[in-house]
Amino acid sequence: MPSDPTSPLGSNDAELTPQMGVTAVRPIPPERPTVEANPTGRRLAVLSITALGVVYGDIGTSPLYALRECFKPEYGISATPANVFGVLSLIVWSLTLVVSVKYIVYVMRADNHGEGGILAMLALIIGKTTVHKQRRAVLVALGLVGAALLYGDGVITPAITVLGAMEGLDVVSATFRHLVVPLTLVVLVGLFLFQRLGTAKVGAIFGPIMVVWFLAIAALGTNEVLRAPGILLAINPVYAVRFFIERGDAAFVLLGAVVLAVTGAEALYADMGHFGKKPIRLAWFWLVFPSLLLNYFGQGALVLRDPAAAANPFYLLAPRVMLYPLIALATVAAVIASQALISGAFSLTQQCVQLGYSPRVTIVHTSAREAGQIYIPEVNSALMVSCLLVVIGFGSSTALGAAYGIAVTGTMAITTVLFVVVAASRWHWPRWRALSLAAAFLAVDLAFLGANALKVGHGGWVPLAIAIGLFTMMTTWKRGREILRERLTDISIPLDTFLTSLSHSAIPRVPGTAVFMTSDAGGVPVVLLHHLKHNKVLHERVILLSVQTTGIPEVKNTDRLTLHRLEHGFLRVVVRYGFMESPDVKEVMELLRRQGVRSRPLDTSYYLGRELLIPKRKAWKRSGLSMNIWRKRLFAVMAKNSRSAAEFFQLPPNRVIELGTQIEF
Q1: H-helix or E-strand containing 299?
Q2: For the whole model, what pTM was predicted?
Q3: 446 and 570: one domain?
């Protein structure tokens, strides 16, 4: 996937950092280490434990509230033995079909050079498949909607998990009820303030803590199951079918609460590139899945014995003396679950920037060893404010449960559609096989989605509003940049024509190197034309640098750079990066030096263009590209408030020259 313009309005620009020193030779940074395809022994154990702290935090904390929500009065399902067995059977088979079968067995096969996630799958589809142009546009829209819904998930997950953990105080004593929301706000503020330090500092302890968490919830459930082993019969799907037959519409509506048990399943796929398939699958089948089942069975057994325990069966599993330690452990587990979604939002934003769907943002790498550990202050602040408002506005995990499911189920359904397209177009599955799988998965996904759609008026509108707003901004930015690129190309001139004109001109040449950013390999950057217009000189060496984002996660260093030596000291340099990488021009300049392009850092100037966009009601059309006036104004606002090129490039103030121009569009 070629990139869009790398002007200051471009979003996949290289990050320029000045070379300090004249003769120092910097080593080329090593390629980002990839996870082994088939780790064994100690390495497999380490990866599996680490995956627990990142991948399974969200789904691992679902027992805090999932079964409890199923017996809330608004659903009209009382805690009778038939209902307990039916609800428990629904939860067990939801975990089995959605997580174990759909994601673990099938969806994780659709890796983009080892990377997963909805945007990675989207890049896989539009990069090399033979999908029809119109169908591709629909699939791109679906992928962007799914990505936007994940942001809604990122807002609600920290709020509901931390609230669910803190609500254990209400079990200890009703006098602590008024402390739940304030303490939740304090924990969330601390969580988001912590992000700037990076997960690298505490990542090593996340996995072991989650091991303790899963063993603890398994032990709590086992203790109750041993008192009523008959609850294990709920594994029979007949109970779920019978529950649907007997309860009808009420059972369908209840799916809106049952889906809370599988929230976090998308993380299995999204974080695949960090750990690999084998550790994630091993951790699920050997620890996470059994622990979740034991805990849910234990909660069901407790509710059978004491129907009043349905008010909060998770915490009532524990002896009273263990409540405070369990609340503390649950809070830590909730923070870890929230961390996974917050980090996922950072990674998703980086992919959006690289693929051209988001303006430039501040991307801070918090680990020298792990390229995937990043921090984006703008996203962190937006998530923090949104989470705090959600907690204040809803006040309880029960109220938030209505808002939670729609984002999760919407993303699940979109993932199914994209997966089937990959299976049919890239793997060449027979149509009957692909459609059969789609029908089976969508039957479950759409049932969950339909049940949650009934809760739009009770909070489900929150993630939908977030998704609609973000989808509008992403598509506006992409379309606006395409129009801007054509406008810049229209006012530019071909490079061959420009070089020919230099042969007949007397433009003075001054010592040093000038670097001009451009995306048009065949044209002259507008900023170069303005430089000549105002300064009437050229440097001895002129580098026209283009940065392209590919449809794969990472590009090997050997394929990173293409150099074309042109006439009159001009060089055309094309640099390629994957959508999971952050471009780094320090690396580019070192690669150029190794190819014989010598430049002294203190004699190198970086020329950047700054466009002042003037939206016009009169449409400017070329190749069918156009936008409504309100979207043009939105694009202009987004461009004005995006991170400045000089800051994004990390250029020294005394080496940067910005030249502006007005552009009507």
Answers
A1: helix 289-305
A2: 0.78
A3: no
